[in-house]
Write a structure and sequence with these properties.
about 140 residues, Hypothetical Protein Ychn, Chain: A, 5-stranded parallel β-sheet, about 35% helix, about 20% strand, globular, disordered N terminus
């Protein structure tokens, strides 16, 4: 299977960092960010990094269950990230406050389970700054 990241980049392709601040259930912002990311990749642009911050970290929750007639936005983010080999970072302080933990954080806080999709890593704001220094554009959603 060929991913969008494998397609040739268009002349003048830009590098984007997307900052997602909204929870998937609270507004259209998360879904809009998802559709925007898909469009960027289809147009041949690059996504330097997705950074989930504040309530936006809930987009990385592997425990989200949605009604059958609604899109599971966290699962859609996970699929997009995996299919295209995107860099996805979840802010550590925002994540821990909202119960989003990976294996390392679960062990550190002596928790018995993880809740963060493996497609995303838990990290700090330094990774956002690094991505911004390598990007042509940054857009914030939520």
């Amino acid at each position: 299977m060929t991913s969008l990241a494998d397609t040739p980049k268009a002349p003048g392709a830009l590098r984007y960092t997307l900052l997602i601040n909204a929870a998937p259930q609270s507004s259209q912002a998360s879904k809009s960010a998802l559709r925007f990311a898909e469009s960027l990749l289809q147009m041949g642009h690059n996504i330097e990094r997705l950074f989930f911050y504040g309530d936006g970290v809930l987009n990385a929750s592997s425990l989200t269950v949605m009604p059958q007639d609604e899109i599971n936005i966290p699962a859609a983010w996970h699929a997009l990230i995996e299919a295209n080999g995107l860099s996805s970072v979840v802010c550590v302080s925002s994540a821990i406050r909202r119960g989003i933990v990976d294996t390392a954080e679960a062990q550190r806080h002596e928790l018995y389970a993880t809740s963060c999709f493996t497609s995303s890593e838990i990290g700090g704001l330094g990774q956002l700054i690094e991505a911004l220094s390598n990007s042509d554009r940054m857009l914030s959603f939520g």
